[in-house]
Amino acid sequence: MNKLTVDVAVIGTGTAGLSAYRAARAQGKRTVLIESGPYGTTCARVGCMPSKLLIAASEAAHMVHAAAGFGVHAGQVRIDGQEVMARVRRERDRFVGFVLEGVDNIPDQDKIIGHARFLGPHLLQVDDHTSIDVSRVVIATGSRPYLPEELRGVGPGVIVSDQVFDWTDLPESVAVIGTGVIGLELGQALHRLGVRVSIFARGGSVAQISDPEVLHVAARVLGSELDLRFQHKVVSARQDGAEVLLTTRDGAGAERSERFQYVLVSAGRTPNVDNIGIETTGLELDAKGIPVFDPLTMQCGTSAIFIAGDANNERPLLPEAADHGKIAGDNAGRYPNVHPGLRRTPLAIAFTEPQVATLGASYRELCTGGSHKFAVGKASFENQGRSRVMLQNHGLLRVYGEYGSGLFLGAEMIGPRAENLSHTLAWACQARMTVAQMLEMPFYHPVIEEGMRTALRDLAAELEKGAPAQSKAPDCTPGV
Ligand SMILES: Cc1cc2nc3c(=O)[nH]c(=O)nc-3n(C[C@H](O)[C@H](O)[C@H](O)COP(=O)(O)OP(=O)(O)OC[C@H]3O[C@@H](n4cnc5c(N)ncnc54)[C@H](O)[C@@H]3O)c2cc1C
Ligand SMILES: NC(=O)c1ccc[n+]([C@@H]2O[C@H](COP(=O)([O-])OP(=O)(O)OC[C@H]3O[C@@H](n4cnc5c(N)ncnc54)[C@H](O)[C@@H]3O)[C@@H](O)[C@H]2O)c1
Prior knowledge:
Blueprint: E1 2-11, H1 15-26, E2 31-35, H2 42-46, H3 48-66, H4 81-104, E3 111-113, E4 116-120, E5 123-126, E6 130-139, E7 143-145, E8 158-160, H5 161-164, E9 173-177, H6 181-192, E10 196-200, H7 212-225, E11 227-229, E12 233-240, E13 243-249, E14 255-260, E15 262-265, E16 269-271, E17 305-307, H8 318-334, E18 347-350, E19 355-360, H9 363-367, E20 374-380, H10 385-389, E21 396-402, E22 408-415, H11 418-430, H12 435-439, H13 449-465
Parallel strand pairs: 1-2, 1-6, 2-3, 6-17, 8-15, 9-10, 9-15, 10-11
Antiparallel strand pairs: 4-5, 5-6, 7-16, 12-13, 13-14, 18-19, 19-22, 20-21, 21-22
Bound molecules: flavin-adenine dinucleotide and nicotinamide-adenine-dinucleotide.
């Protein structure tokens, strides 16, 4: 057994781990990075990048169909599944290559290969080859797809998102389980690429939306294109030759069995903290077994252990993993003099079409406590000028503001170019602008942002009225 003594050990070489390593090294600390899987990060290998590549191909196919609405007829569309998947994999490999170059530049003595687990708060073991005495640890172990009991051990037809990006051709049919971000992004992309897709939701949720009005519009707009089946539970799945026989039960109790080439399970992700000997650290754990930590410092209690990225499940998104990692690594280097790091206004975007975006305080968070203490403004994209010009006039934007101060609090939306609108709004939120100040900003014509201005004007009018004397308890329970 090799024995090492280091200042900081970072477990996991994903986005959070790499960022933590750099930050701890910047504090002049002897730091090692431990990795049990392939280098390259989840984002580049099986996450953000390959999924957006598949979506880009599907958008190209969709644009050809949509052109007819403008009187432009492109003729018969032919989708070559092998070419589609070859580009996805080729470009994915290019992105992974950039990460690998960065990893190559890390000195060999700082990189340890193997599965790390705690034997105590200051002792790690990597596989059965290395034991590390360590002053401070950053847990950056990421997450893995969650597989519900009824879908375990079925056979090769039941897959998770990781496997999609290794396909060499598009399949004939896919049942998607879950209407979260992964299910909707991949389900819509595959549908637009000519795959027969059915998407099953055990409840009524759509991506990360918590506002019931936005949820309602999102379910309608996405449901008008996709075979979206809400309130459908998986009863069983059985591999039958090259197909999976999937049995589901709808809200009325009726069962139906159908055959699909693949069942793609996108039912959430589980943080990788259950297999690292966390129980030997003495840390306080929450109900999900994740160490209780401070989201400003990433410190677990008052210990010398920090947790970053998907592993802490706070906001399991790429930009957050990078920020978490920087804060955790920096504070591991500084320990015990930890500092709060830069946390930004929450922002999440689902790359469906129309896109779904949420930022700032969510409707659900604002409802916590049960009283309606915030004003809501809204704008539909149905008749919004620029959206109609582009034949993308679907969706709804709802914006929230604080009575009294007039501060802009957050927004939820489904609509055209939501990725851009949500950035503008998130910047205003982080700058702590009031709704009145936002309306003083320039708006060109004709642009989608004019729809945002309509919502903000509506919000300003609601704020002007003042808080209702009798606070109305809003419906804060969108189909969970
Ligand atoms: C399909 C998909 C699409 C996504 N799209 C987006 C998007 O568009 N935008 C966005 O912001 N986010 C997106 N995400 C989320 C984003 O990819 C993740 O939030 C981010 O990659 C998490 O980074 P991380 O560093 O926490 O984890 P990872 O990159 O997963 O790194 C964790 C590393 O730890 C290693 N490890 C685990 N346990 C151990 C151990 N015991 N010992 C040693 N090593 C260990 C793992 O092998 C892994 O390499 C997507 C995710 C998926 C799955
Ligand atoms: N564009 C992006 O930023 C992006 C894209 C993809 C993934 N991600 C990240 O990856 C995370 C994981 O994505 P996801 O879509 O797997 O999770 P999710 O949490 O977004 O959605 C999970 C879905 O599965 C359903 N579900 C949960 N348990 C189930 C069960 N037992 N049976 C059937 N359905 C069940 C839920 O109701 C929900 O619809 C996201 O939360 C997000 O942080 C982000």
